[in-house]
TrEMBL record:
This is SDR family NAD(P)-dependent oxidoreductase. Residues 24-328 form the NAD(P)-binding domain.
Length: 348
C-alpha cells in the first residue's frame, strides 16, 4: 500500500521502535549534540551531518560518551549542498533540522551567508524529505522571529517581526516549511525554542559569556545591554521538546508551529547577579558598546507561552533556571571544558 508522507506512521515512543535511524543536521553544535545524545538514549541510531571542515572535527559530538558515539554515524557535508542533504536523509524515519547560522551580531556583517545556510539549506532539506517520502521533519525556528513582545506571554499567533538579518532568514525558512506542508503535504513540524542555555553553548550567548569569564577568574565583566528580558530554557528540556514533536502522532503536530519555553522571564542584569551569587563572585559589570545591538534591532522582551506544545505532546520543562545554571556552571568549571573557549575576547 502506497502512503503519502503525512500518512506514514511515526512511533509515539522512540524507545519502542526497535532502533530506527533518524537524521540530524547541525548535530555537532550546542543543541544538536544534546539532541543527538537524547535520541540515542531513547533508542535511535543517529545519522549526524557535521559541516565539512578540513580538520575532520566533529565538534561537540567528539565529547559524547563512548556508548553514545557508537550509535552515531557521522557524515561530513553541508546543508547548502543538495547532494549532501539527500544522502543524509535517504532511509531515515525522521529528520531533525538544526543546521543554521545563529549569531545575531555576525548576521549584521554577513547577511548573505545567513540566507544561503538558513533559507537555501532549509529548502534543500524540505526537497529531500518531499522526494524521499520521509515520515517526519522537525524544522527549527527561533523566538527571535517574534521580535520585541507586543503581548506577553508570546503565543504562536504573535505577529512575526524580524529585527535582525538572522531573524529574517529564520522567518523565511519557517515560511518555506509552512508552504511545503500546504503545497505538498510534507510532514513538517516547526519547533520554536526560546533562548536555550546549558553545557556546550558558545560564548556568543550571554550565559556562557558570564559563567566563562567568572570561571576564568574575571570579576570585571564586559557585556552588552543589561535591560532585555528572556525566557531561558535548559538545553536538556529543549532536546526533550524536539523528541516530543518528532515522535507525536502526525495528526497532533504536522503542519504546526510550537513554542518551547518555560514561561519565566528574567532581565540580563538580574541574570548576571544570579550567576554571580551562584558562583560566589562579587562582580563589576560594565557595558561594552561593541556588544550592544543597533537600537531598532534589539529585542527587548521574550517570554514563551508553551501551552500548545504541552497540549499536543505533554511536554513541560523539568529544569528551573537555577538548576539549569548549576549544571552549566559545573560544566564550565571543568578545566578541560573551559579550555575550549576564548573567554578574553568578544565572541560573535
Amino acid at each position: 500500500m502506497n502512503r503519502t508522507p503525512a500518512d506514514r506512521p511515526v512511533p509515539a515512543d522512540p524507545g519502542d521502535d526497535g532502533g530506527t535511524t533518524v537524521a540530524v543536521t547541525g548535530a555537532e553544535g550546542f543543541i544538536g549534540s544534546h539532541l543527538t545524545e537524547a535520541l540515542v538514549r531513547a533508542g535511535h541510531r543517529v545519522r549526524a551531518m557535521v559541516q565539512y571542515n578540513s580538520f575532520s572535527s566533529y565538534g561537540w559530538l567528539e565529547t559524547l560518551p563512548a556508548e553514545v558515539r557508537e550509535e552515531v554515524d557521522i557524515q561530513l557535508g553541508d546543508v547548502r549542498d543538495p547532494g549532501s542533504v539527500h544522502a543524509l536523509i535517504e532511509g531515515a524515519e525522521a529528520v531533525y533540522h538544526l543546521a543554521a547560522l545563529i549569531a545575531i551580531p555576525y548576521s549584521y556583517r554577513a547577511p548573505h551567508s545567513y540566507v544561503d545556510t538558513n533559507i537555501t539549506g532549509t529548502l534543500n532539506v524540505l526537497e529531500a524529505v518531499r522526494r524521499l517520502g520521509t515520515p517526519r521533519l522537525v524544522h527549527t525556528s527561533t523566538s527571535e522571529t517574534y521580535g520585541t513582545a507586543l503581548t506577553v506571554p508570546i503565543t504562536e499567533d504573535h505577529p512575526i517581526n524580524t529585527q535582525s538579518p538572522y531573524a529574517a532568514s529564520k522567518a523565511g525558512a519557517d515560511r518555506l516549511a509552512d508552504s511545503y506542508h500546504a503545497s505538498f503535504g510534507t510532514p513538517v513540524v516547526t519547533l520554536r525554542p526560546f533562548n536555550t542555555f546549558g553545557p556546550r553553548q558558545s560564548m556568543r550567548a550571554v550565559i556562557p559569556t558570564v559563567i566563562g569569564q567568572i570561571a576564568a577568574g574575571e570579576r570585571t565583566l564586559t557585556l552588552g545591554d543589561l535591560r532585555p528580558t528572556r525566557d531561558f530554557t535548559f538545553v536538556k528540556d529543549t532536546a526533550r521538546a524536539f523528541l516530543a514533536v518528532g515522535t507525536a502522532p502526525a495528526a497532533e503536530v504536522a503542519g504546526r508551529t510550537f513554542n518551547a519555553g518555560t514561561g519565566g522571564e528574567i532581565s540580563v542584569g538580574d541574570l548576571v547577579r544570579l550567576i554571580g551569587k551562584l558562583m560566589s563572585a562579587d562582580l563589576d559589570v560594565r557595558e561594552d558598546c561593541a556588544r550592544i545591538r543597533p537600537a531598532n534591532s534589539e529585542v527587548m522582551r521574550l517570554v514563551a507561552d508553551a501551552g500548545r506544545l504541552r497540549a499536543a505532546t505533554g511536554w513541560r520543562p523539568a529544569y528551573d533556571l537555577e538548576s539549569g545554571l548549576a549544571e552549566t556552571i559545573a560544566f564550565f568549571r571543568e578545566p578541560a571544558n573551559l579550555a575550549r573557549y576564548k573567554t578574553d575576547i568578544y565572541n560573535i
